[in-house]
Amino acid sequence: MSRVLLALADQTVADGLFAELSRRGVEVDRAETAEDGVDLARAGEVDALIVGAGMPRPQRLELIRRVRSLWPSALVFVAGPDGDPAVVVEAVKAGADDYVVLSSPAADVAGRLVRALEPSPDALLATEAAGRGEEVLEGIIGGSAPIQRVFERVRKVAGADSTVLILGESGTGKELIARAIHALSHRARGPLIPVNCGAIPEELLESELFGHEKGAFTGAIKTRLGRFELAKGGTIFLDEVGDMSPNLQVKLLRVLQEHQFERIGGGRSIKAEIRVIAATNQDVRAKVSQGGFREDLFYRLHVIPIQVPPLRARRDDLPALVGHFVAQCAARVGLPRPKVPPAVMDLFSAYDWPGNVRELENVIERLVILSEGEYLSAEELPARIRSLAPGGATAAPSAGGHIFSFPEPGPGGVSFNDAVDEFERRLIQWALAASDGVKNRAAALLDLNRTTLVEKIRKKGIKFPG
Ligand SMILES: Nc1ncnc2c1ncn2[C@@H]1O[C@H](COP(=O)(O)OP(=O)(O)OP(=O)(O)O)[C@@H](O)[C@H]1O
Ligand SMILES: [Mg+2]
To answer: Which of 367, 374, 327, 357 is closest to 131 using CA atoms?
Structure first.
């Protein structure tokens, strides 16, 4: 999903654009000041920035420069009622790509932006996969029994308006599941408004969610709608809900129980006409027993849990997922679609995928780009996967093994520097042993530059053998 940062002085225009972009599946973060914009840009990747010509000039230019340097591939637009040449020229000099005229309807502006963001071959590929008889639910691939059970549940709960809590390790596809539930529900024509509770700084999150009245706090120059209000008639997706602060947990509980909320600084209760889907990769139950998450909120969210299984528990999905990502990546970078040799598939099947589907997607991207010729090359796999090959490097260092053992604390504790130094020494010795002392291979095994490795060996006076 693309993330767009809106920094507009006119909140009515911002509301309109926000609604139109959200409807098109774009994650939108709004900043009322250029300074807030910089904070939000630091908090996570930005695919596009729209900064209003109405923002004070130095801050506006500073925001453009900051986004340009933090996220070089972002699309940066300066927006205003007309194309004032002075504004355009200085914005472009600061790094902006183009000018957006805000007098045209929000839907047109949003449509243009979305087209600029994604010349995406995804939809096409999903249709292809379905044509090959692969199991696909709203673009989610998976024919294995565990994921089929998840699909079944998604179809069942979509129609009901109940709160859903999606649980699962990082990268398992929780966000895709949330989108599928929304798309299959009677709210599909309404907006799906995502909020990443972990990425937005806490002070901003409250006003993001609930909105605020004019004058509610210094800087609240205008009334602003929160995401609970903007999601009206649709779904709000509270991602990383486990990261919510205790203060906001109380407020969320109230929304879930009473279906109403107030804007910050406002006395009037507003009806929450939304469905809530939440997700987390944390063990919230454990967090509850440690006092980090409210028990009442947990049970309120946990009405219908959906547990998304890790990739290692559904290895049957690997071939279809690999085929999908290879095709997707080749199309994106404009290369012919390479074939997947059995040796690579075998390594994929042997590997545990702690980063789940996202890790697989990234590994495939690397392979597609680095492999030359008709086949994906096992040589280009990261060392952690390549070393699983029979006759490859010896077993990887395992937690609790001799490499990772924790030093006995002395009376004064543990010296951090000594412990790290000792750890590096053992790791390097292991890698040298695993690659018969060939430094190139040892470096690859550790995902280090050869020169870095050689330098460390020299500095630490490591000898091989022993
Ligand atoms: N079954 C699937 N079919 C196709 N693509 C998938 C599937 N599962 C995950 N993906 C892709 O893998 C990536 C990670 O998925 P997603 O963002 O939904 O995971 P997540 O569980 O929300 O992760 P996190 O906890 O880190 O936020 C995305 O690019 C998504 O499109
Ligand atoms: Mg996610």
So the answer is: 327
Cα gap 117→50, rounded to integer Å: 13
Give the alpha-carbon dihedral of 133, 138, 139, 141, to 10 degrees. Answer: -60
DSSP secondary structure letters along 230-248: HTTTSEEEEETGGG--HHH
Q: Which domains does the chain have, with CATH numbers?
A: 3-117 (3.40.50.2300), 145-311 (3.40.50.300), 393-466 (1.10.10.60)
- Ligand 2 centroid to Cα of residue 147, in Å, is 17
Amino acid at 456: K
Count other Cβ atoms within 10 Å, centred on residue 3.
23
Q: What's the confidence (pLDDT) of residue 129?
A: 59
Our mutation pick for probing the ligand 1 site, out of 45, 125, 175, counting the most ligand atoms within 8 A of Cβ, is 175
Span 245-286, pLDDT tens digits: 999 999 999 999 999 999 999 889 999 999 999 999 999 999
SS3 215: coil
Q: Are 430 and 397 in contact (CB under 8 A)?
A: yes
Of all protein residues, the one whose alpha carbon is nearest to atom 5 of ligand 1 is: 140
Whether the pLDDT of residue 431 is over 90: the answer is no
Give residue 327's pLDDT: 92
